[in-house]
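Title: Prediction job returns without error message
Component: structure pipeline
Severity: low
Priority: P3
Assignee: unassigned

Description:
Job completed but the reporter wants confirmation the result is attached to the right record. Sequence as submitted:
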Amino acid sequence: MIVNQTALKRQPAVLALLVIIVIAGLYSYITLPRESAPDITIPYIFVTTTYESVTPADIEIRPAR
């Protein structure tokens, strides 16, 4: 309640603080370094299994024990 009452009594100060925060946020967003095509490494996972005389389709269907 105290914060609400203080903010209502000092509306110009609250609005000035709001404007300062918005301007600082916009400035920070504009000055952020950005790349048009950043280098992103996508991890690859390669799974192998050795199960003789079974087709790959059967290995995919077979439930785990």
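Comment from assignee: result matches the submitted record. Helices lie at 2-9, 11-31, 56-61.
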